[in-house]
Write a sequence for this structure.
């Protein structure tokens, strides 16, 4: 059965909002459940509606709890791309047949509960008043700690109420606060003083109350755990002895059922002297004993092979020798350099830390993590034991129990950026975390050492893939763009362009398509890339047009005519006949008194729509400004044929006729205007026309009040 998914959506931290801390607190509270692989922890930082919808699609029918942390009110949750009602994605939540609970951890959002119930959500924790950031984080911590302690939703809520008031004596608990049931309306509860704001609401459906008895499913059958024994270290060095005891009942179960039973793990031991020392011989015998013991319980799997033909050769200790062994036959090389006859040798272990983990972005495209090759650990025995422990089963990291995983990460993560083998240690530690579904911790570790990542192509690749696992495609795109040009092979580019596309960075995706085209792809792939390029070009064009138009409107509203004209021009380069960009260009040119430019756009508008009144009136005004009286007369009469009530056309016609000293025609045009506009009761227009009658000694204004 698939593990239940806890989906979290956090608004970005800003002002007094600290959702990053809320995420960390919840992650710590759920550590036990994640370590036991009982739940999938799925955070989404700076969430948008698109992020939430994508996660609901990717984990359909697996979402058990949906948690929102951030600003809210009676109507909206405030996501990164703006305010949204919970019901915006309520339909998607209602379709999750395994959804148990929705938590809205923000201010005063209980009025959204009924709408969620309408979509089929059965239980909601919401707030009836404003809550501080500090108290919201504490509520989340208490609730999830209780849930991780195998309490039901109802029990976890009651526990949270009790502990919350114990920790915050000024908070008053309302009577019957453990479950607030609603049928139609939600009444605000009011008390004197500060109240406990979080209510647990259940829908009126018959099975709604039963859902409060839900607990996180148990861990199931546990995998056998290796444990390392303390070793004596008398003359040379020794390595942790690994024990895999068979259970009495039921019959032995394979440690890693997902892998075949023929995996091998080979260790080469380089002698520290001309002939093997007693401690080396003892170590070889011990490894062979461990191998035989392990094979009794797992026939066919040979974990260790330290036979004489590998280990007892008189190799000279050198970088080339070790690299050759790692490349040819050994997963691990143990070696040492004599310090002096009086002192114990300096011991070291170098190994290949390969991973078969693949990140799949769709049904056709996946990419494996980059192998971290030949990292070295030296100077202590204990890290070796944990290293072997992590590398069991052909270094897949799959059999690592949580406690040993934490110890390994602590040993390998490096204490500072000055650590010599920091990049190697960082690669192993992050892979251990990823393999144990601790994605957030892996990302935090990468971000702790940016210089080490930037100087190691394999870490750049793995860092980007880890962001993909977290469904953070924007950061994945930014990270994978840092990969050096000489590392851009075809599988990587095919994967990266899909990441760019999901992040909405279409220009980056098109650049990667061009790179792939220069690699002479197979005919089928070339056809696919051509189609992809055509589609992405259209999406890029639409995206740019949308951005240009939005910026244009802002400039136009601010009366920044020059900028609005420039942005409108960019929009018209993409969509030549965009009506809004044409209008802004015409109007901005007119306001800047660039009559020729404004006239050009007015004429373009009329060529597309001869009945456009705004363009017709503006063209009349432009001709008057240019003192092109005859064109003004023609355009005014053309406009009046379509719109008899256009004051701008009447006014322009009269002015142009007066300028041409056609007094009788001006008076006739004036009387016609008064007749048309007067019928509409526009006395104000009539008075304005009356001012023009002075050219004919007032004869045109006769009869006007």
């Amino acid at each position: 059965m698939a593990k239940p998914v806890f989906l979290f959506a956090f608004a970005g931290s800003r002002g007094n909002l600290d959702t990053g801390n809320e995420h960390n607190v919840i992650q710590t509270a759920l550590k036990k459940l994640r370590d036991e692989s009982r739940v999938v922890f799925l955070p989404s930082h700076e969430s948008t509606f698109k992020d939430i919808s994508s996660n609901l699609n990717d984990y359909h029918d697996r979402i058990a709890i949906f948690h929102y942390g951030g600003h809210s009110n009676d109507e909206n949750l405030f996501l990164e791309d703006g305010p949204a009602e919970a019901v915006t994605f309520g339909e998607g939540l209602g379709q999750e047949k395994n959804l148990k609970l929705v938590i809205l951890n923000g201010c005063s959002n209980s009025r959204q509960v009924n709408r969620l119930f309408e979509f089929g959500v059965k239980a909601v924790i919401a707030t009836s008043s404003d809550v501080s950031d500090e108290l919201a984080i504490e509520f989340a911590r208490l609730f999830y700690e209780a849930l991780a302690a195998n309490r039901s939703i109802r029990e976890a809520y009651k526990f949270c109420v009790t502990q919350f008031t114990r920790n915050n004596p000024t908070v008053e608990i309302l009577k019957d606060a453990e479950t607030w049931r609603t049928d139609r309306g939600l009444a605000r509860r009011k008390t004197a003083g500060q109240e406990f704001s979080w209510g647990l609401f259940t829908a009126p459906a018959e099975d709604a109350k039963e859902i409060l008895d839900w607990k996180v499913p148990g861990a199931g059958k546990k995998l056998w755990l290796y444990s390392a024994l303390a070793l004596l270290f008398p003359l040379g060095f020794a390595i942790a002895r690994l024990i895999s005891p068979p259970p009495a009942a039921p019959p032995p179960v394979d440690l890693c059922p997902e892998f075949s039973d023929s995996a091998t793990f080979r260790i080469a031991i380089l002698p520290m002297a001309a002939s093997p020392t007693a401690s080396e011989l003892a170590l070889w015998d011990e490894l062979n004993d461990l191998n035989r013991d392990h094979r009794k319980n797992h026939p066919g799997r040979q974990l260790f092979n330290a036979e004489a033909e590998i280990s007892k050769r008189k190799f000279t200790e050198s970088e080339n020798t070790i690299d050759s062994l790692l490349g040819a036959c050994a997963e691990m090389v143990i070696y040492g350099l004599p310090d002096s006859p009086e002192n114990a040798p300096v011991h070291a272990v170098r190994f290949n830390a390969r991973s078969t983990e693949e990140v799949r972005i769709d049904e056709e495209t996946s990419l494996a993590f980059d192998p971290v090759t030949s990292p070295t650990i030296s100077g202590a025995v204990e890290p070796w034991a944990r290293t072997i422990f992590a590398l069991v089963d052909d270094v897949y990291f799959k059999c690592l129990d949580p406690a040993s995983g934490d110890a390994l990460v602590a040993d390998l993560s490096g204490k500072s950026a000055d650590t010599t083998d920091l990049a190697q240690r960082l690669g192993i530690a992050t892979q251990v975390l990823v393999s144990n579904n601790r994605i957030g911790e892996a990302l935090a570790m990468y971000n702790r050492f940016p210089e080490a990542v930037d100087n190691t192509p394999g870490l750049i690749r793995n860092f980007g893939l880890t962001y993909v696992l977290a469904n953070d495609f924007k950061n994945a795109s930014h990270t994978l763009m840092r990969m050096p040009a000489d590392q851009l092979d075809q599988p990587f580019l095919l994967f990266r362009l899909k990441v760019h596309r999901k992040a909405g960075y279409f220009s980056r995706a098109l650049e990667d398509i061009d790179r792939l085209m220069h690699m002479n792809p197979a005919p089928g792939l070339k056809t696919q890339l051509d189609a992809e390029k055509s589609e992405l070009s259209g999406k890029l064009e639409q995206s740019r047009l949308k951005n240009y138009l939005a910026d244009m409107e802002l400039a136009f509203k601010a009366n920044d005519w020059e900028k609005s004209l420039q942005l409108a021009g960019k929009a018209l380069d993409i969509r030549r006949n965009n009506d809004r960009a044409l209008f802004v260009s015409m109007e901005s040119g007119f306001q800047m008194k660039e009559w020729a430019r404004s006239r050009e756009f007015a004429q373009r508008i009329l060529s597309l729509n001869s009945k456009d009144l705004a363009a017709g009136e503006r063209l009349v005004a432009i001709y008057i400004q240019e003192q092109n009286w005859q064109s003004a007369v023609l355009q005014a009469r053309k406009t009046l044929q379509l719109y008899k009530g256009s004051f701008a056309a009447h006014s322009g016609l009269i002015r142009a006729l007066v300028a041409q000293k056609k007094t009788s025609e001006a008076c006739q045009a004036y009387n016609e205007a008064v007749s048309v506009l007067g019928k509409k009761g526009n006395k104000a227009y009539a008075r304005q026309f009356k001012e023009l009658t002075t050219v004919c000694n007032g004869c045109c204004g006769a009869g006007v009040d």
